[in-house]
Amino acid sequence: LKVLSRIESILQSPRAPPLIFRPSKGPVQNYIKENGQGCGFEHLPLTIEMWADQLIALKDLHRSLRKLSLELLPWNTKDPQDNRESIRVEDLQFIVDAILEELEHKEKNSQTQSLQTLSAIVSHFQKLFDVNSLNGVYPRMNEVYTKLGEMTNTMRNLHELLELDSSAPPTVVVDTVGKLCDIINKNVTEQVQQLLGTQDIHSIINKLEEHESFFPPFQALIQDLLCLLEISNMDDILPAVQNLK
Q: What was the pLDDT predicted at 35?
């Protein structure tokens, strides 16, 4: 009876689980009341067995959390509960709190490093493209993007015009254009030499000087003839002179 009274006092305390005490019903309850031997704890052995299973599972959970803690916090090997036979919920909560605290610390450090990295990238962009303020970063990015698109299209067109492979680097394109310009310049020089009837550059200069000394008086003479003969076309000069005979 003393044991039952002690159990009754514990179970009726504010900290006791509300579903432990379940009064018996029916003839058995009436019989117990008449004899003064029952307190409504017939189901208590099953509850105690369940608690025993939970305590065993609590130890297993503790071992699992310790393994997780060693994986995430390998430097934190000290655990004052390792040698304790009974494991409390507070012990498990302590391990969980330590893990959560470390994860939050890592997350904050990761965000800080990310901000530092982004700041370094923006500063590097400002140096590369001569941007004095943060407000000028976006406009310069748009400008660089536009110029890059124009250059890409230009290089693609040059590759097609020069019949080069699309993987040819810009240096090959420049060399090809340079060779093409040399060929064109050479052909122009040869055509000028053929036109002037000379292969010597000094002869070309002399002929140009002769042209400069001859052409102005000749042009003035032609203009006078056009005015005197009252004609506008140089081809009509000869027929007009012949008619004057």
A: 46
